[in-house]
Amino acid sequence: MLTRRIIPCLDVKDGRVVKGVNFLNLRDAGDPVELGARYSDTGADELVFLDITATIRSRKTIVELVRKVAENVFIPFTVGGGIRTVEQMDELLRSGAEKVSVNTAAVANPDLIAEAARRFGNQCVVLAIDARRAKTDDRGPRTEGGEQANESSRPAKWQVCVKAGSEPTDLDVVEWAARGEELGAGEILLTSMDADGTQAGYDNALNKAVTDAVNIPVIASGGAGTLEHLYDAIIEGGADAVLMASITHFENYTITQMKEYLRDRGIPMNL
Amino acid sequence: MITVIDYSVGNVRSVCNALEHIGCEAKLSCAPKDIEAAWGIVLPGVAAFGYAVSALGSLAELVKEVALAGKPLLGICVGYQMLFEESCEYGVHKGLGLISGRVVPIPPGRVIPHMGWNSVTLPADMDLFAGLGGAKHFYFAHSFCADVADAGAKIAYADYGFELTAAVQKANIYGTQFHPEKSGSAGLTVLQNFYDICKRKAQQC
Lengths: 271, 205
Description:
The complex is a heterodimer.
Chain A: E1 5-13, E2 16-18, E3 28-30, H1 32-41, E4 47-51, H2 56-72, E5 77-80, H3 86-94, E6 99-102, H4 104-108, H5 111-120, E7 125-133, E8 158-162, E9 167-172, H6 173-183, E10 187-192, H7 204-213, E11 218-221, H8 227-235, E12 241-244, H9 246-249, H10 255-264
Parallel strand pairs in A: 1-4, 1-12, 4-5, 5-6, 6-7, 7-10, 10-11, 11-12
Antiparallel strand pairs in A: 1-2, 2-3, 7-8, 8-9
Helix pairs in contact in A: 1-2, 6-7, 8-10
Chain B: E1 2-5, H1 13-21, E2 26-29, H2 32-37, E3 40-43, H3 49-56, H4 59-68, E4 73-76, H5 78-81, E5 86-87, E6 93-94, E7 101-105, E8 114-121, E9 135-142, E10 144-148, E11 154-159, E12 163-170, E13 173-176, H6 184-204
Parallel strand pairs in B: 1-2, 1-3, 3-4, 4-13, 5-7
Antiparallel strand pairs in B: 5-6, 7-10, 8-9, 8-11, 11-12, 12-13
């Protein structure tokens, strides 16, 4: 049986993994190659590296990084951040990345997804979506207790944001995800901007809306704080994989702890 | 030395990295002399079926020839699919025809691509899986799968709501639908086993 996946996410800046916003004691979370190898050795199913500077200069650094990671890590990893062309994707894949993720460039030019899928196969192409609850939806992402609010009869809407979340677009997240699948994306990396960094749980209404709308795997991202959050993203949100940063980088939980918890609650895991 | 066929697209480096990690000299090449001189050949899993076949071009005949002469051959993912007679991915394309069977879409009714770690039941008589016990998880990423029609082939299966062919072996011809180079320590053991098979074969000659 296919297992659900645990995917640590490494945000890379100037060749280093950087911390989430709330943890001053770990501004620098370490060397990406070392951290990647450690996650691989301790049971992570996959890794995601995001170049959060995504400048022309950082592009060279990230290709070099991919090369080094691929020499030391024998599990799949995805690379994303600032990828604009099929040539850039080719360079990253040839350097040893299993998949590449696109976000802003795919919104500007949806054909990029189709072009990449035709050339590399759809299993290589990850559509990353940064989702923000639309302002017309006044319920907010969560109540204080961390429960999903559902009193409102108005269906929730999320808008696609680009340029590292700084720029909202008119695109509806659910429609864009379905369009991405149609164009040839093999997977969706779905980040809730509302939940990100809160450690208050994933936005499972968002996850559910997207997993119901597409037939390709969906990675839930943003908001992981507890083991139960991972379970909820899979069961309530229908996520095929869960992505996290803070709770693994800061060693709140080991990968094994996460997997054992989920397995004991009946979810197939690679243990 | 093992030659990894270079298609000039996608992630071929990872197979070489994994082979080098286990102490095997691996050469990424598409030169006929490297195919002839190698102890064994790896057809890595990149790109779409039609693209991979056309990239292989005239080398296909040579690969077939050395495989039929007894040189160990390991196909991975699309490289594994190419061992069969034909595939219907983006039109019908002929494969190497080393194993009888066709490559068909994964049946609908489940998440596609089949992406992630699935448990493979490992038959005791497949030497690719020596030392790994009865079952292990391996990493898959594919939308098509092989429908094997070869009575002479040994098969390992995974469960994806149907019996998914995860690996085959027919004499010196091996194939894995999963990516051993991306399947952690179990995957490295599979590559080590293939390397050992190649070494044994080379010593016999």
